[in-house]
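Please check this today:
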Amino acid sequence: MYHPFRHLGLKALSVGIAVLLWLSVSGEQIVERSLRVPLELQNNPASLELVDIPPPGVDVRVRGASGLLSRLAPGDIVAVLDLTPARPGRRLFPLTPDHVRGPVGIDVAQVSPSTIALEFERSATRSVRVAPSIEGEPAQGYEIEAVRCQPESADVVGPDTVLRQLNKVITEPILVAGATGPIRETVTMGVAVPGLRLKTPGKATVTVDIRPLPVQRVIRGVPIRLRNLSLRLAGQLTPTDVMIDLKGPREIVESLASESVAAFVDLAGLRPGRYNLQVHVEPPQRVEILRVEPATVVARIK
């Protein structure tokens, strides 16, 4: 059986609390405040790329109880732009109070700007070479011989017109300062151009080959040999030896003697007579011939 006066004390306390809450709220002044709020873009079509950099935020004018406005935290109010109707080209998107989300009890009176202009392009993918970033110099007396990268290329996604101007994908720096031997590192790849991104973010393994600097040396008195001289003929050269200027790894170049360098003239098919012939040199492996002096000699065949 219902008794209207049962728990009368609790009922009176509840009414009192409700009255106090109403008085505290109704006693607050309704104020307006201008705020800078973040702009969020939603539902960008997968087939389109945003070319413009949208503004990070917009200005809104809000109205509400002074206490409620004073308790607002960053991110409580956000302007949201729906990009579902986007198409290639430059488009205008209206921005109204209905696009602003905030706590209950706060009304949005105005948004500025009232429109946002954004440009869109078709999305494209292109394979671009990976160019490792090298920082520093090897130790004195050493040089970088080669830089190898795996993978050699990566797929980049973005607006077609921007993508056409991209010529490389970069990596985190590989430090070679003071190095005297090969360096091998696995580093992150990336694209430095705004609006472009790797189709699949990943890493590259970079190998930097470092070798001792080649040394240069002049070897004098290198004998010139006769090649392909007919058995029935005799040949004589003037001069009989040459000077050779060469360059290569120190351990090879410094060990060379005049007799260990093959200099020759080719007499194949020549009859008796006097000829000016070019001196040929067969350099040892990894050695470069810079100069032969004299470059030609006189050959007399009898």
